[in-house]
Amino acid sequence: MKIGNLNFKDYAAKKPIAFSPTGEFLYAKDLAAEPRLGLGSLFALGAEQQTKLTLERYDLEPDFSLAIIGAGVLSKDEAIEHIKGNTHIGQELVQAEIGYCNELISSLAAGGSLPVWPALPPFPVIPKAYWKRVVNCIWLILKTRALFCENTTDGVTTPFANYRMKYVHPEFSAAGYMVIVLKGIDDTRANFIPQAKIGLTVYISGIGHGNYTTYTGHMGDHILEVCKYDPAEVKDKAIHFLSCETAGQLGPDTVAKGAKCYAGYTENFILQWDSPSTPAVNEFELFARSDSTFDINMAHGATAQTAYNATFAAFNAAIATVPGTVAASYLTYDRDHFKLIGDPNTKILPYRYVKICFPIMELEKESSLALAGDLVD
Range of 97's domain? Predict the structure, then answer.
């Protein structure tokens, strides 16, 4: 059903999105016909009215499940119980729904063209010369590394990890990066430390559980925790984690310790698992594709700000695909809590130069160079 510039599923068109001045529910068709009815923010409503609107919208949504990265999966009935009980999660669900309704009202009033998925920039060009000589020094070009920490041993994170390994990792390989993947039982801090400290590692990313201070891997292993890591693990790197809350404190902490930038979420990342009533739309993929836009743009040589803007645009395109639905509510919520911290001009490249000058006076460096090649008399 088309209302304004949006194509609603029939059940979504029947969901209220606001209240009239006399307290009756208002629907998308009402707001599209008379935009003035939508003036004012729904956040100005009392908690009781916000809860009433949310519960009515949930009641009209076909059966669904919500996944919260870090808290597990909630059924529709469990989500409703949280809302009725005014729990912390219930309050978060109400805020997400009210925030989306505000945006939907504005979208119906504005009209215009629908947002589209952002285009990718071309891959960066790797110089053809692999070495050059200057006086008594040689410059070599070495491949840089993208380090991925993918939690594949958890029911909520595994689908994202599989998506990322299928669609994100190959983009880095195609760009010329050496891709290092810690997954399964190898997704631990003990394995992370030596890979992160290598100077050729320029990008760190992954899917895992988290909280404001910590990003975790296999069985909750603390891969990065505020004030509990060597700054060399993050120095000069761009970082993006798909996890709950880590942009709250962990992200700023990594930047303070030398990371070039950090992209992540300040609150819970919540998504709708695929709904059996809408087989034509893969709701999970809308969330996965939106978040992965940041990684893929960085692989293509975009600045962190450009990658962030593209991710924001990707969420907008995903939201417009499923107007009025629970999926749209949480795509909006996740988008609004996605933050970029650090230098917006950060770029990564699939190569770095190493300068070696002769004679090498440091025994350790000379030994390393001898081990790297073949000694000939």
Answer: 2-67+74-110
